[in-house]
């Protein structure tokens, strides 16, 4: 795998929090209450040079909000975003441009993120002009960008319009545009979920290749935990606006610790379940309890909770098969699991297990 | 096994004349009683068009240009769905075949209560049923799909996405159809919810004995939930076999490529490549086998002649078919 020793931290979120205000009703005005959607609460994450961090969660878990906060598209409610250790807050357009030159985002839908009335040349030229007013050889820079994302020969694509390209090609253009700013960090918000299944891996492999060649720090947001295992060095699992588990991807997917992560993994389609030749997971007790996702998921209604009034204590406790009385009152803190260094879960089950 | 629906050489075009796009070409498929038949393919492969074609729900410019869809009623002579009069068709729909659409959670009417929408179907199809009996049936259906009957008077926006999807499934089953077509029923849902709903559907199928045509692009999901799988590419079925056979030993290079496009959650972590190139444009389909420009194992007959779907040339070829020159003796080669 990649060099992990002298990986330098590029972007860091410390206790990142975002609450969206909800429209107040007359009753709220009288009672002077303020409701808010607790979209993201107390999120810590670190993006390092040449490493991919995956953020996995269901829709509505706040994973895209984290990406948008990191891209400074939303002002944050609390916490801090540090770029190379320095706290950043974008207040003006000029500051935002400076920030965007270092942290770029790739969006989910390449059909919506490219302007249909402009050519590929226009999209890429803008990225280059805005971030690098050096007036160098523009044509050569454009060619290089397209070659980087394997759209070759570049001349064939430069003067096309987005509708003339397939979904995979469009997403490659979107990646090229992000690279045009020569960023240090890429925030990829579900970059392949809108693409045809047969070309998803091509785009993921391209991102991995770019990461290695350009030493990029990548945040990969996805709902597909299997692709996180495939693509990311480190995986973080989010539930209802909070981080519940983290560690290196192999450990999180093979020996999940948090009950929610286990539910997620057991629910993922698994052809081996039919053929019955899957090896029993190594941590026997838990895997037996959680073996059949469908049987136990009937607890509660299988829905993530309302984020306007999130459950007290652990947000997963109403659905958790292993919930204890304490889970509904005390917010769990990240606890070391103790199997592999750096593997943690915010779950009271693991209190006192690690030395 | 007893067939329920027999699709024979179905052809569907969009548009007429020279500019017509052939979205479904020469598709033959048999759905048996009580089975889940998975239909896999990428967007543009014609899988949804096939479903709309066989239920005659195609909106213009879609036209059925040929073929037959033979329905076998339980105690009557088989008949061709494509030849039904409008009146007979109205009777046939929903009562015999029901369809759950893609993004079904948005196909409920937002200004009507769930109960109204459920009983509306009964009003149209069983006009002599009493109001009370209708309500009772609607209540029963909701219970069947795992929604508490006291949500009868809820409006769609008061239900979550998963619940709306269940209401849609309940609505599809309310007239006890024998065939249920599900067009990407769970793509808009989370994996946890997806598993719950599909588990429930399989359980209901065992209890009520209907057959399911399950359309999705997620092959790994199909392998787990269906009995047989047909894989479509460029408007044709390229391979059809029992689910476990496809998973263990797919013959068509496209099926193989599709299977290795899903990273595995368990087992060794290996480098995957997906399939190079992009899906074909229906308007400019390559000659010969439509997969040949992307195929790693293409050889000389592939570009020239269209392979016919048939029993493969292998000892265990019974019960499966494939359209690939690698598995068939090529007429010119011998």
Q: Estimate the helix proportion of chain A, in percent.
A: 25-40%
Biggest interface found: A-B, 47 and 43 residues
The poorly predicted ranges of chain B are: none
- Estimate percent helicity of chain B: 25-40%
Oligomer: heterodimer
Mean pLDDT of chain A: 85
- pLDDT below 50 for ≥5 consecutive residues: which ranges of chain A? 1-5, 275-300
Q: Using the coordinates above, name the CATH class of the largest domain in chain B.
A: Alpha Beta
Average pLDDT of chain B, rounded to a whole number, is 87
Order of helices and strands of chain A: EHEEHEEHEHHHHEHEHEEHHHHHEE
Strand content of chain B: 15-25%
Termini of chain B, distance in Å? 36 Å
How do the helices and strands line up, and which of them pair or pack?
The complex is a heterodimer of chains A (355) and B (334).
Chain A: E1 9-21, H1 26-31, E2 36-48, E3 52-56, H2 63-70, E4 78-83, E5 86-87, H3 93-100, E6 103-106, H4 120-131, H5 138-148, H6 155-158, H7 167-180, E7 185-189, H8 197-214, E8 217-222, H9 225-231, E9 234-239, E10 242-248, H10 249-254, H11 259-267, H12 272-275, H13 284-290, H14 293-296, E11 335-336, E12 344-345
Parallel strand pairs in A: 3-8, 3-9, 6-7, 7-8
Antiparallel strand pairs in A: 1-2, 1-4, 4-5, 9-10, 10-12, 11-12
Chain B: E1 3-14, E2 21-32, E3 36-40, H1 47-54, E4 62-71, E5 79-80, H2 86-92, E6 97-100, H3 114-125, H4 131-144, H5 161-173, E7 179-183, H6 191-208, E8 211-216, H7 219-225, E9 228-233, E10 236-242, H8 243-249, H9 253-259, H10 300-304, E11 321-322
Helix pairs in contact in B: 3-4, 4-5, 5-6, 7-8
């Amino acid at each position: 795998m990649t060099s992990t020793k002298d990986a330098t931290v590029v972007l860091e979120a410390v206790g990142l929090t975002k609450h969206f205000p909800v429209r107040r009703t007359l009753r709220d005005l009288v009672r002077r209450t303020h409701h808010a959607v607790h979209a993201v609460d107390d999120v810590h994450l670190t993006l390092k040079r040449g490493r991919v961090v995956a953020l996995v969660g269901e829709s509505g878990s706040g994973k895209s909000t984290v990406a948008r906060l990191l891209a400074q598209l939303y002002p944050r409610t609390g916490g801090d975003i540090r770029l190379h250790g320095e706290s950043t807050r974008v207040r003006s357009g000029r500051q935002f441009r400076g920030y965007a030159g270092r942290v770029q985002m790739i969006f989910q839908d390449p059909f919506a993120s490219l302007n249909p009335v402009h050519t590929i040349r226009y999209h890429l030229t803008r990225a280059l002009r805005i971030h690098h007013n050096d007036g160098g050889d523009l044509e050569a820079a454009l060619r290089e960008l397209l070659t980087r994302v394997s759209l070759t020969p570049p001349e064939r694509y430069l003067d096309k319009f987005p509708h003339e390209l397939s979904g995979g090609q469009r997403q490659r253009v979107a990646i090229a545009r992000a690279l045009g700013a020569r960023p240090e960090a890429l925030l990829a918000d579900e970059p392949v979920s809108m693409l045809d299944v047969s070309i998803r891996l091509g785009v993921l492999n391209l991102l991995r290749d770019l990461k290695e060649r350009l030493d990029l720090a990548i945040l990969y947001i996805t709902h597909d935990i299997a692709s996180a295992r495939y693509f990311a060095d480190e995986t973080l699992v989010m539930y209802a606006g909070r981080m519940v588990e983290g560690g290196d991807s192999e450990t999180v997917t093979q020996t999940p610790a948090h009950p929610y992560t286990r539910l997620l993994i057991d629910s993922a389609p698994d052809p081996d379940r039919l053929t019955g030749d899957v090896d029993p997971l190594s941590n026997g007790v838990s895997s037996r309890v959680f073996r059949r996702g469908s049987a136990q998921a009937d607890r509660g209604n299988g829905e993530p909770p309302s984020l306007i009034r999130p459950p007290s204590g652990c947000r997963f406790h109403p659905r958790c098969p292993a919930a204890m009385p304490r889970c509904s009152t005390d917010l769990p803190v990240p606890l070391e699991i103790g199997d592999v260094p750096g593997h943690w879960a915010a779950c009271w089950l693991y209190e006192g297990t690690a030395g | 096994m007893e067939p329920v629906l027999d699709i024979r050489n179905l052809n569907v075009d969009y548009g007429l004349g020279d500019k017509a796009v052939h979205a479904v070409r020469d598709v033959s498929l048999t759905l048996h009683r009580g089975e889940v038949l998975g239909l896999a393919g990428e967007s543009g492969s014609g899988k949804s068009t096939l479903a709309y074609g066989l239920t005659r729900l195609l909106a213009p410019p879609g036209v059925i240009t040929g073929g037959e869809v033979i329905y076998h009623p339980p105690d009557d002579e088989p008949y061709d769905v494509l030849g039904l009069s409008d009146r007979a068709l109205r009777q046939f729909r929903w009562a015999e075949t029901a369809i759950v659409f893609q993004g079904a959670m948005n196909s409920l009417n937002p200004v009507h209560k769930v109960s109204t929408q459920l009983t509306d179907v009964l009003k149209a199809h069983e006009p002599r049923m009493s109001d009370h009996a209708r309500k009772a049936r609607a209540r029963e259906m909701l219970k069947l799909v795992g929604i508490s009957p006291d949500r009868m008077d809820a409006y769609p926006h008061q239900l979550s996405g998963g619940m709306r999807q269940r209401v849609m499934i309940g609505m599809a089953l309310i007239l006890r159809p024998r065939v249920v077509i599900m067009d990407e029923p769970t793509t808009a849902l989370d994996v946890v919810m997806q598993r719950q709903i599909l588990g429930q559907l399989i359980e209901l199928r065992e209890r009520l004995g209907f057959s399911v045509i399950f359309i999705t692009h997620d092959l790994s999901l199909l392998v787990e939930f269906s009995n047989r799988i047909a894989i479509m590419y460029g408007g044709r079925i390229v391979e059809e076999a029992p689910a476990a056979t496809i998973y263990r030993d797919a013959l068509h290079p496209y099926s193989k490529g599709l299977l290795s496009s899903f990273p595995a959650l368990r087992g060794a972590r290996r480098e995957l490549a997906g399939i190079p190139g992009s899906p074909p444009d229906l308007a400019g389909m390559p000659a010969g086998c439509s997969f040949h420009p992307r195929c790693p194992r293409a050889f000389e007959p592939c570009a020239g002649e269209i392979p016919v779907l048939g029993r493969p040339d292998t000892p265990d070829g019974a019960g499966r078919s494939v359209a690939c020159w690698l598995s068939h003796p090529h007429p010119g080669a011998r």
